[in-house]
Queue: 2 jobs
Job 1
Amino acid sequence: MTYEYIITEKPAEGVGLIRLNRPKALNALSTPLLHEVGDALRAFDADDSVGAIVLTGDDRAFAAGADIKEMSGTSFSDMLVNGGLIEAFDFSKITKPIIAAVSGFALGGGCEIAMMCDMIVASETAVFGQPEINLGIIPGGGGTQRLTHAVGKALAMEIILTDRRLSAQEALHYGLVNRVVAPEVYLQEAIKLAQKVASKSRVAVRIAKEAINKAYELSLREGLEHEVRGFKLLFGTEDRQEGMNAFVEKRPPQWKHR
Ligand code: DAK
């Protein structure tokens, strides 16, 4: 499939890569671009040769937010009745792990999209922020919730109310990102991490991702019940038998992903 605002490739075994490709606008997230991202995510999610997905921008910007020029012409009733943008800002139906590879600006919707991913590999140049307050709005793609979960209430308040930006090192310190690496290798690192995930049993990875995400939505008791159901469910898979046989026979497992 060919796209206008993104580029997709399979750069390594088991890995699907989506590059945002509006460099002149710092990868501002226009509605058509977001629809293409959604289509590409769904296509990789359904592709048996892909076990994990990397989402990236370019060296200068992961994404500088939703497209302000597009939004400036959006009326209240458009925003109220048009659910397209809200759907586009929801990766929750994607079952395979998504890793954001972030360099440069990850602002507003760009920061929110990075936080919707399951892991973030950041370049030393990455800058995270929610500057919506400067436009007279607040985050609309999950920023007030996911950022608060990640960095805590006090810092989330400062970031969202004053447009305080986080450097890559600060983002690492506060647990927003998995690792910070040199600008020359951030994409390679993210692809390597995705390859590692893709080399595991995909049924187990899927159940694990789902269970971890439930930790944000359920009480501890409900979360523990969810986990144990997933644990038992995996005893019905061929991969569970293979994984345990391989351990006993001292050989690497041959996953069938079922
Ligand atoms: N939208 C549109 N164009 C953008 C843009 C954006 N967010 N960010 C940058 N650009 C464009 C600039 O207009 C400029 O284009 P030309 O004027 O050359 O045509 C080009 O990219 C280069 O930008 P600058 O010349 O400004 O570059 P600088 O290096 O000087 O500054 C910057 C870089 C990132 C600091 C600056 O561009 C900037 O402040 N950008 C805006 C950042 C921002 O405010 N982001 C938050 C946007 S609001 C929702 C979900 C999510 C959202 C809303 C609803 N729902 C589910 C309902 C999200 C909202 C947002 O993200």
Job 2
Amino acid sequence: MTRHFLEITDLTAGEIDDVLRLSAAPIPSLGHPLRGLGAALIFEKPSNRTRQSMEMAVVQLGGHPVYTRGEEVGFDTRETVEDVTRIMAGYHAVLAARVFDHAVVARMAAVSDVPVVNMLSDHSHPLQALADTLTMVGEFGSLRDRTVAYVGDFNNVARSLAEVCVMLGAHVRIGCPPGYDASDDDLARIDSLGSGTVVQYSDPIVAVAGADAVHTDTWTSMGQEMEKSERMEVFGHYQVNAGLLGAAARGAIFMHCLPAYRGLEVSAEVIDGPQSRVFTQGHNRMHAARGLLAFILGADTAAGSTTDAPSAERTDPAR
Ligand code: CP
Ligand code: NVA
């Protein structure tokens, strides 16, 4: 069966554990499932981490990444999403795409007989959530009964993060301004995904109370640039600064998928301070991408079971 990865919920909780184990496994133990094979990486939006980490993960698994800009293939302008996909699926073992409209990756998956990976859409960012989980599990040992706060815009990053946390037994506390928050339907759906829970508040101080990890993301996502000035006003009280982080559990860690805008969603003293794990988190993008690709390509999930040793970046806050 072709395993697509469009959402965190395309994996079970047990499979997420398998992916985390593969992510932490020594690279040689994974073999070279992509030896002699290609992976198409299509980007309709800019990227630093996702492009670099996916290209290196493909190389580490023995394959050849082919970076392609969205304009080059012209989804639904030069040719249909389905035609692009069917052609590329004949060249590559994996197709990955960063798209404006989530429907594009869904349409790719509908016609592809090789795995399709969502590298960020307007709806979700599941590869980021895997790296976030790898980082928090490296820090805490497990997410079970941990409290994870997310403050800011309930966006693609927030949705995937909340999903994986509830699936793995964490209690998620969201702090968002009205109008930029999770819908009741989304909250109910996420709450039902596992043994964890999700609750939402409009007051960011209430949201972070007792949190072991405090996450945020940009207030203006790619594609929302026209709304920037309006968003600056709405989100003004949602900055993660020393005062807000002080309302979390003692020693709570700060996380951000990056790119970050110092002075807006996070103060410089927090993101550059001792509680920040953002560079470990960013480096974990590569380890998580490698683990995910190995998993969907059918790697032996016991590969990482002989060691609890994390990948180099998993717990190191110093870089
Ligand atoms: N976090 C993240 O996806 O970063 P990039 O946009 O740089 O890939
Ligand atoms: N929410 C952000 C994440 C960037 C990695 C965006 O979609 O632009």
